[in-house]
Amino acid sequence: MKNCYLGIDVGSVSTNVVLMDENKEILGKVYTKTQGKPIDAVKRGLQEIQTQITEEIKVKGVGTTGSGRHLASMIVGADVIKNEITAHGIAALNFVDGVRTIFEIGGQDSKIILLKNGIISDFAMNTVCAAGTGSFLDRQAARLDIPIHEFGQKALSSKNPVRIAGRCAVFAESDMIHKQQLGHNQEDIIKGLCDALVRNFLNNLGKGKDLVGPVVFQGGVAANVGIKKSFEEALGCEVLVPPHHEVMGAIGCCLLAQEHAAKNKSTVFKGFDIVHSGYQVKGFECEDCSNVCEVIEIMKDGQLTARWGDKCGKWSNNIEKDKEKLA
Amino acid sequence: MKVTFPHMGNQYMATKVLLDELNVENILPPECSKDTLEIGTKYSPESICLPLKINIGNYIESIRQGADTILISGSCGPCRFGYYSIQQKEILSELGHDLNFILFDPPQGDYKTFLGRIFQLTGTKNPYKIIRALAKGTKILYQIDALDDLAYYKRPRQKQIGEVDFYLEKLHKEIRNAKGYHEVSQLIQKTRDQVMTIEEDPNKEIIKVGIVGEIYTIIEPFVNLNVERKLGEMGVEIEKSLKVSRWLTEHLYLHPLGITLEKEITEAAKPYMKTMIGGHARETIGYSVKFAKEGFDGIIQIYPFTCMPEIVAQSIMPTIEKDFDIPYLCFIVDELTGDAGYTTRLEAFVDLLKRRREMKRDEKLLSGY
Question: Which residues of B fall within a CB distance of 8 Å from A86?
């Protein structure tokens, strides 16, 4: 029986599940769209992971990250719940020893993480600007009718990139349309877009920071060779893309779970059987004060397992007390 | 005359006591909530800084309860705050609320206007009565700020998370029904005793973070998404650069006499900012340097979106970060009430500080100190 660690990254766009063994080898990875239903996505991810594994395994630790980390941990039973920044940093360190700069561009947000002597020393996270994220690229690819996986390749063949305004997704799009109507090549426009995105990223997140190599580029957008090239041109150094770049957050979770297990702590993982359990989410508005918090309740097979969303802690803490009473 | 005033953290307790002691009928606006924000953003100019919007929300909620006079402090205009009273009066009169504004500005030499306003508010010219009420209000301010300091200390150390805020929230509820110096002071004292006795967990590792930035956003928990509680429960002890008690002493009592307690801060800021540029930019810089020198683990700056003085300070912060080798995080707050992104960044920042401290300790061990 092989000892394994499970990492789950529930992001706004994709949910990633990774299974890693003791030697930090990736046994299975799943990249699935969240589609606004994180619970279903987690269940689907676990199911798919199960089908990928041929040998007998034992899960020794589970970690969750991403904006849905608390929800995911509630469902699967996680030993470590970590923010995305730490998880990504740890995963990149495992890929390149001594990495100093990490760029992470996902569907809805982008981050820059700086490390010194193997620990995170600075970071910036961009959650409001759409111009530097994967969703915007997706949209533009769809508008130009190019499959997203060919988008980057197209940029590489550009010889004379046009300048696209990169500060804001709205400006960028109107600029692109304008340039396309002037008759510019599609390749040149795409390359211009990649440059604009990189410029936006470096100005927005990297301002005032010393960006030194080795540089690692991860997240879903790292699959785009055009963006990678633009980063290399802008920085004047090589940018490394890890082989499992799209699931680095989940890998970070596996590593953290391994660390946790190394301290001789047993796991609270509920087992793969949970995919057969029915989860329901109910919500209500608490009207006890003017904050009118939207409280979320998670029910497992008709039984209340978690509550959150309240500011004062009245509802979320209550359930803990209920549990204590039961115990 | 029914007087109301805007919220700013715990300041309301002192203002309430001041008015109570002067026998001025007063209406305490409801605690800042989503409603307050919604009303405020509806009636305020879109691009104005957040405090004005919350103020407007507070006023209107009080007007609904019958307030007809507004008491607000000024700052003689080093930033947009100086124009708040004028703009707010305009906004309210456009809405058909013709209210009386009493501006409690530091005198700056013009004692006639200052005293005239005080007489208008108090309805008395008895200086003894006024001074006594002012002294009592100030005392409350110091008591509540001391309670806050205690909470900063206790929160990261409490054995059962949430206990400190349990007592503090109770205090906020009870104070609404209290009247006058005596009752309020006793309530604060009672809470202080309760918080004092909260059991501590001696094994917790405590990280120290200095909070700097614009005064309103660092003091009002509703707009900074309760950063002090979030940090406290992550095991972080904080110290804030600005407190209302300090501000009042500095501007109302000492400034007219030409004395300042901020000498140390302006000196500390000098290599980066030689002069006052408005708002609290110089304090942000000065306190950051002070905190760094005192061995704090990190610095967090908080300011409302579009705050010019703090934008200037923010551009200087990376230099301080480098000069003193101290991590720094910046939060810009606006109308957001979803706090997932903030919590993620706070968590990551605290992780970073903890790892850094571990590293430093290991280095010391290795080099044999």
Answer: 347-348, 351-352
